[in-house]
Amino acid sequence: MVVSYQSSSKFANFQFHPSPPLDHFRQKPAGFFLCTSVRPMILQVKEDRCKLSRCIIRSDISASCSASASYPLSESQAISKFRGICFYAVTSFVAIFLFVLMVVAHPFVLLFDKYRRKAQHLIAKVWALLTISPFLKIEFEGLHNLPAKDAPAVYVSNHQSFLDIYTLLTLGKSFKFISKTSIFLFPIIGWAMYFLGTIPLKRLDSRSQLDCLKRCMDLVKKGASVFFFPEGTRSKDGKLGTFKKGAFSVAVKTGVPVIPVTLIGTGKIMPAGMEGRLNPGGIKVVIHPPIEGKDPDFLCSEARKKIADVLIREGYET
């Protein structure tokens, strides 16, 4: 039963109405009662979400406006980018003049020193020193472990950065790097690599890999040294990757020692994939004692262990 109350200035009446039959409720849609009961709850949830989002936005704005949250980070990035621009400006300017010397000297190099090409490597050393010296300091350890000037060897090293090549050129040793064929197309730099006798390689081409190893063995037998990055590519997280055995097979088949080299700091100064930046820092080069043997697996594990031990000592993960 439903009671309704009507009020006026003169009288008040109570009216009684019989309750509606059950069929009245059965005729309503299935969602009628759900909508009428849940809708206030939905509105309340929406209101709470709006309050929460306004709170989060205010906290984000206040955090982003604080000097310690954003300003120093953007400032350091800007400085690193500016240093990177200066670095490439210097290396390009120096390369233009030294490249002319390489062109002039190349006919004489082919006549008198076709395989080692010491004159070209001396020019490359000057180029690397003039490029790096204004920005970075390099510390060397174990220089006495380097072989005699004309003694061939197989050098191996960890690979962290584009700076690795510059750093290794400062050693002044006449070793031949292995590089992707696409790098040879770069003006000045690629042409200079050709004059240095850098060995081209197509990474995904097995035939190119075999030709590369054969050429390395031929150069070593004729008195030149070769330099490998056994990881095959630059490390993106700073960790030491798995070593491939190609370099150690060359050493075994030619009977020359393996010289492990550990590079420290290049990956932090110019990380892989961020070649446009030059962060502040120092570089350390550790030359390990030569390793000799007749088993490529043994040489591979020993060389990696020596490099990994130094990286761990310097706080790197391997």
From TrEMBL:
Reaction catalysis annotation: a 1-acyl-sn-glycero-3-phosphate + an acyl-CoA = a 1,2-diacyl-sn-glycero-3-phosphate + CoA
Sequence similarity: Belongs to the 1-acyl-sn-glycerol-3-phosphate acyltransferase family.
InterPro entries the UniProt entry points to: AGP_acyltrans, Plipid/glycerol_acylTrfase
Annotated signal sequence range: none
The keyword Mitochondrion appears for this protein: no
Organism: Coffea arabica (Arabian coffee)
Domain notes: The HXXXXD motif is essential for acyltransferase activity and may constitute the binding site for the phosphate moiety of the glycerol-3-phosphate.
EC number(s) stated in the UniProt entry for this protein: 2.3.1.51
Transmembrane segments: 87-110, 177-197
Domain Phospholipid/glycerol acyltransferase: 153-266
Alphabetic keyword roster: Acyltransferase, Lipid biosynthesis, Lipid metabolism, Membrane, Phospholipid biosynthesis, Phospholipid metabolism, Transferase, Transmembrane, Transmembrane helix
Annotated protein name in UniProt: 1-acyl-sn-glycerol-3-phosphate acyltransferase
NCBIfam families listed in its UniProt record: AGP_acyltrn
